[in-house]
């Protein structure tokens, strides 16, 4: 079906100005939205919301980004089925040759979106520039960062986001250098205290990687890195699988961080049965609703973004607020002004949901999955 013959999609459409009941006209981009302002609680029609944006994706469908080859395409297809229309392919702490292999495959996938796949916007380099004392489920290959190495990685695949432990020697200066180069820096896998967090933000750090996890927590006499985030951050990512972070802590972050947004931190186990999977060089186990190392350490998740949305609404957020947390805020964070919202000229990335918030259809750049 060509763009000029595609029929509009009708329902309750979430626009930047609020809900409209009417029709969304589109090709590869949104052509227009016709209708009237409405409270969707007053009718039984479907919800049409911006496509989900996930900046922290390690895997899915049994595949891991660090494999290289066609893994990014398989992973992007799995998450597209769950409403993710664009994502950042996320790496693991690993030897340089492993990172090179992964980035070469990701770079090729960024250049050519396959049919039925989410758009891979670039890379979230989560490691190796982290603190070896806060590895979490990262393998033990952490090391100091150097700008020339980062730029060599950037030549293989576009670096959109890099997780850094700012307390490591030389990393505070690197935060400023990367920010000037147009690469977002997140604070994560860190043993830095409150003052280090505040200083990193002042140097240009933009957010925090999986808030609360792999960083010093909040104490009233030692606020830690979490305290720096809650007191000063505009953006931070959080994993709302209700396993990584207690709902009460999520509510605290929602009150403190204006543009808190959701990520899945999904692994190869996403969309798969219980069993063993790879996360970089480590074997992980999907069991009891989560993913763990052999010692029980949480190791990413099996979360998908449609479930993240349902979890937020289940906590009491409105669909509109929850939609911003799984889409718009992440788009703004990455500077993607034509994604994460439904308005004329934006990419036709949207999800059609039934009244129970289950997916009925996904459209990516106008393509219906």
UniProtKB/TrEMBL annotation:
A Gene Ontology molecular function term for this protein is:
metal ion binding
Q: Which residues bind Zn(2+)?
A: 126, 189, 210
- Limits of the Amidohydrolase-related domain: 47-367
Q: Which cofactor is essential here?
A: a divalent metal cation
Q: Name one Pfam family in it.
A: Amidohydro_1
Q: Name one GO biological process term.
A: N-acetylglucosamine catabolic process
Residues binding substrate are 137, 213-214, 221, 244, 298-300
Alphabetical list of InterPro entries matching this protein: Amidohydro-rel, GlcNAc_6-P_deAcase, Metal-dep_hydrolase_composite, Metal_Hydrolase
Carries keyword Manganese? no
Keywords from the UniProt entry: Carbohydrate metabolism, Hydrolase, Metal-binding
Cofactor, free-text remark: Binds 1 divalent metal cation per subunit.
**Enzyme Commission no:** 3.5.1.25
Residues at the active site: 265
- State the similarity comment: Belongs to the metallo-dependent hydrolases superfamily. NagA family.
- What's this protein's name? N-acetylglucosamine-6-phosphate deacetylase
